[in-house]
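Intended use. Records such as the MSP domain-containing protein entry shown here are meant for training and evaluating sequence-to-structure methods. They are not intended to support clinical decisions.
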Amino acid sequence: MSTGELLSIEPQELQFPFELRKQISCSLQLSNKTDDYVAFKVKTTNPKKYCVRPNTGVVMPRSTCDVIVTMQAQREAPQDMQCKDKFLLQSAIASPGATTKDITSDMFNKEAGNRVEECKLRVAYVPPPQPPSPVREGSEEGSSPRASISDNGNINASEFSAASRAYVEPQDNSSEARALISKLTEEKKSAIQQNNKLQQELELLRRESNRSRGGGVSFIYVILVGLLGLLMGYLMKKT
């Protein structure tokens, strides 16, 4: 923070998260801790590259004002990501109740005997923020163990491997259980089919046995009738 007698400026360095073909903005906060109206004006060494809103204004007593600096989209990255652009913020005491319309260039002219404060601001390019990595949250009950993270943000490899095995093994056991259940189900179906086949064969044997018995009685009956007929014939010849 730059603390002048008229305005306090924060930050002292304009940091732009540099990305190609993208407009990037950062902000300045001007704080007036005096009892006077303070006019300000922002200048830059590369006005075609930057847009400043507002580039002039008045900060009322004991108040603050935000200034937005926007860098136009760049087609090429600078060498070594270094920037030589600079900004100059000038401030001067304005008349009580002054507004932006009352600001003139003569107010910031030192040669005219005006009290003018100047603050130079540097420009720096910084890497763009990285999006957070998605983390799959485990269920509250029965959740798999997670690998611990060390103080420097690195994941412990051995604990990560153990966590991976602990997560995979229940899946393998579940697969074996499903295979065993399927095998037992097939064996049960086969046993039922064999039992039904045996019952059918037993019933067939019973029917054949009954037919055999019925056929035997009829044959004996025929034999007896035949023998009786022969006996009757023999007796009739005798008589």
